[in-house]
Amino acid sequence: MEKGKGDPEHDDGEEGGGFISDESSFYGDETQREQLESQSAAFNGAAWLATYQTTIPAIAAEARRTAPKAPAPEVKPATLYNPYVGQRSGRQLSEDIPSFLERLHPRTTLASDIGPWIWIANPYSSKRPLNKGLAGLKEAGEKLLSEWMERKSAIEQDMAASPKSALNGALTKERKLVEREILNAARANNITTGKVYASLVLIKHQCQHMTGHSSQRSASADLYMVTSQWMLFPTASSIYSVWSPIAHATASNQLGVAAKVATATEEGSDRVGRLICIYTVDFADRDDVKRVLEKLVELGLVSKREKSIYYKCDAYTHLGISSGNEWGIQASMYASKDFLDKQQRKIVDWRR
How far is Cα 209 from Cα 168, in angstroms, rounded to an integer? Predict the structure, then answer.
């Protein structure tokens, strides 16, 4: 194609030297240009603005501009939970965990100084125990236990000539009814907390892991888990290794609603085991009980391969129902194997 006219690279339009010349109709013809120029010259900006400010859109815009701004909603700080405020035996929210452990060292703090327990609460717990009906629970529970002993005696007399298996079956049926009635009374009186306890079990590999001792040393000097309430019972020599992770986990909302450790009864009592309890807020909340147990496993304080540890509700503690009690009532509600076994054995619902 011959370059020249019609070639975009060389065709600069008409005589104006650009794509749009002065003769183009882009600006309108001469009459239109004269009309626009006349209107522009006659436009009074000040008068238009005065008129516009009286229109509805202008009034609305000005109202929006000058309207007082709504105050930002008040954000109330979360109320942290600590029933041990002002108590020397409890962790204060103003102290971090290392400071708390230093102030109330579990090995050296004496019962004669602060009492039998060192306490720590989970400050972020959304579920907080009430435990306000202790008198009502004791009244109802003691009545139930007394009536049960009378029924038990009557059954044993009536079935004196019956096979032992039949007698045991009848007593078990009646005893389970009593257990359920006691737990119902506990809930009715808002006594719903519970804690972990364990059968006499030795966790050798965990003792060595937490204390750093060699396998040549006897683990029996370091850590035991014993029957008496989810509870741990380490000796004084390993108490800090066990209590410290529990305190940190409780304070960071990873365990239950609270935990406690027994203080020393006298100076130099290193050979005496110390009890540690981990509390949950509701014994009927099996999901929460399981969650706490699994965290104890994760912390290395409970083993899936050893004998079961057990869970006890506080209602039984208040009523004096412990292992081997005179009423023949099972002191524990749950066993760790019910939660941790691969086969996940069915847990009996106490409400049925």
Answer: 45
Residue found by looking up tokens 């406690």 in the block: 260
Which amino acid is present at 177?
L
Per residue in 219-230, pLDDT (tens digit) is 222 332 222 335
H/E run at residue 156: helix 134-158
Give the C-alpha separation, 22 to 38, whole Å. Answer: 20
62: three-class secondary structure by DSSP: helix
Bridge partner residues of 10 (DSSP): none
What type of residue is 225? M
Upper half-sphere CA count for residue 278 (Cβ side, 13 Å): 36
0.90 surpassed by pTM = no
Nearest to 308 by CA among 154, 186, 197: 197
In sequence order, the 6+-apart residues with CB closer than 8 A to the CB of 315 are 137, 141, 182, 183, 185, 186, 191, 283
At 177, which helix (H) or strand (E)? Answer: helix 164-188
Helix or strand or coil: residue 198?
A: strand
CA distance 294 to 340: 8
Pairing label, strands 117-121, 258-262: antiparallel
Residues 194 and 119: their CA atoms lie apart, in Å, by: 15
Amino acid at 98: P
Q: Radius of gyration (Cα) for the chain, nearest Å?
A: 40
Q: 95, 91, 100: which is closest to 121 by C-alpha?
A: 91
Rounded Cα distance between 330 and 312, Å, is: 10
Spatial CB neighbours of 3, under 8 Å, sequence gap ≥ 6? 9, 10
Residues 6+ apart with CB under 8 A from 44: none
pLDDT in tens, 191-210: 888 887 543 232 323 333 33
Between CA 227 and CA 201 the distance in angstroms is 9
